[in-house]
């Protein structure tokens, strides 16, 4: 629960600063880093990864899973 509250604080702070100063909270990885062609270093396809608030790297699961539990 503590970690969730920290992410919530990060989200609200980023959105507030974006409202006041302009800018973005969700940026493609290429906006902040020079992403090399080395897929092993960047953990797969960097085009599906984004940065939240310039501090948190998000790699969503985009494939459907067949979980019947």
Gap from first CA to last CA: 25 Å
Could you report the average pLDDT, rounded to the nearest whole number?
80
Number of helices: 3
Largest sheet: 3 strands, antiparallel
Annotate the secondary structure layout:
Elements (H helix, E strand, L loop, with lengths): L1 H20 L4 E3 H4 L6 H4 L7 E3 L3 E3 L11
Antiparallel strand pairs: 1-2, 2-3
Report on the architecture of this protein.
The protein is an alpha+beta fold. It has a domain at about 25-60. The chain contains three helices and three strands. Strand 2 and strand 3 form a beta hairpin. The two termini are about 25 Å apart. The mean pLDDT is about 80.
